[in-house]
Amino acid sequence: MDLLSQLDLASLKVVKFPTPLLQQPSAKVEQFDDDLSALVERMFEVMYASSGVGLAAPQVGVPIRLFVYNPTGRGDDEGVCVNPQLVAGDGAAVEEESCLSLPGVRSKVRRYARVTVRARNRRGERMELSAEGLGARIFQHEIDHLDGVLLVDRMTPVGRLANRRALKDLREQYEDAG
Ligand code: ZN
Questions:
Q1: Residue-by-residue DSSP string for 11-78
Q2: Catalytic residue positions, numbered
């Protein structure tokens, strides 16, 4: 993938709201090669350095359908989903969420309690994963990122009001940086 071979991995960092790329759908991954694996490794580094439990490629400025996750921080709980699709969801759970691209923002979000996701791993092999609790929440939050949907789009009016200051600060920081 041309886009990936030209990336400067060392310079990748988490991009913040309201960067437009975060609110656009990402492209399907077609090539499963060393460049993709190198991006995955770098994304794990960035996620762990930020104490995150999930990180989608558009959050480091790369608009492709890929996310990494680790609900516990233990080595054997980490995973990679490429071209993920939510194929089943049931139950409902309302829990507080945050997002590395929206520092300072926290809001309760209603999600499926249990989900099944079909995806490919970094080598392009098909897999089907079922998750509940935090794992299910991470899958839904990260797939949202690949569709350009953010926590701000999932908030209730009350959540929006409670986070008004944090969102205003992020908009001002973005304008000052640009
Ligand atoms: Zn997020």
A1: G-----TT-GGGGSPPBPP---SHHHHHHHHHHHHHHHHTT-SEEEGGGGT--BSEEEE-SS--GGG-
A2: 142
- The Å distance, Cα 8 to ligand 1 centre, comes to 22
Distance CA 10, CA 59 (A): 15
The predicted model gives 134-150 an average pLDDT of 98
Count other C-beta atoms under 10 Å from residue 70's C-beta. Answer: 20
- How much is the mean pLDDT over the chain? 96
Query: Tell me, what's the pLDDT at 3?
Result: 80
* Residues around ligand 1, an ion, CB closer than 5 A: 99
- What whole-number percentage of the chain has pLDDT above 90? 93
